[in-house]
Structures are given as C-alpha cells and as structure tokens.
Specification:
elongated; alpha+beta; about 375 residues; 12 helices; two-stranded antiparallel ribbon
Length: about 375
C-alpha cells in the first residue's frame, strides 16, 4: 500500500513538474506570443474594416388562422331566417399555413416581384430598384473583389461582344431567367429570411441590406406582398363564386325585366278583349314574369351571400412589429473578429512553442539524413 501511494505521488509530481516546465517554456517565449497576437490584431482590424456594414430589419406579423367550421356561422343563422340555406359556404379549408410562409417568400415568382421595388439609398443620393441595387450597389470585401475580378473581366468582354444581353425586370421570364436575374434571385433569397413560431404562429421576417433605409423599405414591401399573396389565395374561390353569381344575377335581372315588359305590353294591347285565348296568353305571361322574379330574387340573395363570403374569407393580419430604419449595423461584429483572431493567434503561438517547433526540427533532421 505504501509503495502504491509513493508511486502515485511520484507520478503526480512528475506531471506537476511537466506542467511547470511547459509553463516556463511558454513564459520564456512570451514575446513571440505577444508578437503573434499583435499581428493578429492588425489582421483582425484589416478584415473587420474591409467587410461592409450590414443592417437587419425585423418585422413581426400575427396572421389570422382560418377555421372553416366557424366561417360564416353568424351569417348562416341570419340567412336561415330568410329561408336561405348557405350549405357548405363556410366549410372551406386553407392549404396555406404559416409553416409554408418561408417557402412562399423563397419562391422564384415571389422574389421576381421584388425586382421593380423602388428604394432610396445613400441618404437619398441613390434612387433605383432592387434589381439594380443588388446588381450594382452591393459592396464586397477586397478579397472577394480580387477573386471575382477574372469573372467580371470575362463578363465585360462578353457584353462588349454582344453575347450577354441583359434584360430589365419588365422582361423577366420566370421559366427561363438570365444569369443576371438568377444572381439577383439568389442574393435576395440569402438576404430575406422568414421564421414561424409554431407555438404562437407569429411570423418574423428579417431583411439584411447594406443600407438601413433599403432594408426597411424592402422589409415593409415583402411583408405587404406576403399578406397580399395569402389574401388572394384565401379569397380566390370566393371571388370566383362572386363573379359567377354576379353573371347569374345580371342574366336573371334581364330576363325578369324582359318578361315584365312583355306582360305589360300584352295587357295594354288587349284591355277590352274578353276572348279566352287572350286571357290564357295573359296568364302565361304573368306566370313567366312571376317565375322570372322568383329566380331574380333568389339569385339576388345568393349574390349578397357571395359578397359576404369574400369579406369573411379575407384574412386579418396584425403587425406586431413594423419595419423601422435600424440605427446600428448588425454585422460585422468587429469585437468578435478581434477576439477570435487574437485567441487563435495565441493558441497557434503556444502550440508552435510547445509542439510545432520540436516536430518541425525532427522532420527537418530526418529529411537531411
């Protein structure tokens, strides 16, 4: 037992000696560590100030969840008093749930609609559309510009030779986008994000741009277009039904007025005639006019129900957090870049002092042998 305790204490002592030795070794090369960290500070500042500032605008939307069972319940009770059966008017189902909103915003047709959005940038000095702003006014770090310089040169040569004709937003063909239009779609897809809280169904939309005003204007437009898309989808069937009912109403109205005029003219022309055939024809015209009126009355009631259904199907949105111009950039985080670079440089310097230098010396001696 005593021997085991002595061995354990000896092993612990050796480990302590090794740690102390490593600490002394690093301390002896502290100037090297500080020098590497100083280089890292310079590198971090160069990187941090080379990355353009990005501004993020977040808006929050609370959509109305549709419930087909409760739709038009109050209107149905009122219509039943008039003898009208609304039937399955309120049993519509909704296929666009909040979980699908991110896919809708990321779709090509939705993003293409943003090409013509007019924005104001650089404190009012620049007024253009989103397509032109993303193509020509988004700045990149200097290393990206160096990497893209050959491709830009090829693109310029191709444009001079007439082999790459660009199209405006008015000539966008969703089925076949040009390379420039596809680049704009990809850029917008990266800069527009939508998230949905599954518990509360709150929809959060974030837009990141290099100009705070552009970010706020684009976020407001995307939120409006999303509401418009969902409203058009939910009211599409109701609006089609209203259009068809309006056509039936106009036709029934014309038929009723026509039958009424025919009956009135026949009665005026045969007031003093007591022939049985005349009375029979008069009764027939009167019945046709009454039948046309009944049809006209029923279609008029259905028309009012269709109008109410369109209003009932129109969703209501609550803007919890509207789009506002941000005052501070969201990226890059200069302090995070600085701390990360200094930390990595310190770790690299310590690793070189403790392990890298010896390993490099062994490899060099082996290659010389």
């Amino acid at each position: 037992m005593n021997n085991e305790m002595q061995q354990q204490s000896a092993g612990a002592g050796e480990e302590q000696v090794d740690l102390l030795e490593l600490g002394r070794k690093v301390w002896a090369e502290r100037r090297m560590v500080l020098r590497w960290c100083g280089y890292a500070v310079i590198f971090a500042l160069a990187v941090a100030f080379s990355i353009p500032k990005e501004y993020t605008v977040e808006t929050t939307l609370a959509p109305e969840t549709s419930d087909g069972k409760n739709s038009l319940s109050g209107l149905g009770s009122l219509a039943s008093l008039a003898g009208i059966n609304v039937g399955s008017l309120g049993s519509s189902s909704d296929a666009v749930y909040p979980d699908l909103y991110p896919d809708i915003v990321a779709s090509v047709p939705f993003l293409v609609e943003l090409f013509d959005v007019q924005v104001v940038a650089h404190d009012g000095d620049l007024q253009t559309d989103i397509s032109d702003y993303v193509n020509n006014h988004i700045r990149s770090p200097w290393w990206h510009m160096l990497l893209q310089a050959p491709f830009r040169a090829l693109k310029g040569i191709r444009s001079l030779l007439g082999g790459d004709a660009s199209e405006g937003a008015a000539g966008v063909d969703i089925f076949r986008l040009t390379r420039e239009q596809a680049d704009v779609v990809r850029a917008l897809d990266k800069r527009i994000a939508v998230s949905v809280d599954k518990k509360t169904s709150l929809v959060t939309l974030s837009v990141t741009m290099q100009d705070p005003v552009v970010a706020a204007m684009l976020a407001d437009t995307v939120m409006y277009n999303l509401q418009k898309y969902i409203t058009e989808y939910r009211t599409n069937k109701a609006r089609n039904d209203l259009k068809f009912t309006q056509q039936l109403f106009d036709e029934a109205k014309r038929n009723y007025y026509k039958a009424q005029q025919q009956y009135a003219r026949y009665v005026d022309a045969n007031q003093n005639i007591v022939l049985r055939s005349v009375r029979t024809e008069q009764e027939r015209l009167e019945n046709e006019a009454e039948l046309a009126y009944n049809v006209y009355n029923q279609v008029a009631q259905q028309l009012q129900l269709s109008k109410a259904k369109v209003q009932e199907s129109t969703p209501v949105y609550v803007i919890v957090q509207p789009a506002t111009v941000p005052l501070r950039p969201s990226a890059p985080s200069k302090m995070l870049i600085l701390v990360g670079c200094v930390f990595l440089a310190g770790v690299a310097a310590v690793g070189w002092i403790l392990f890298g230098r010896d390993f490099y010396g062994k490899c060099r001696s082996c290659s010389e042998d």
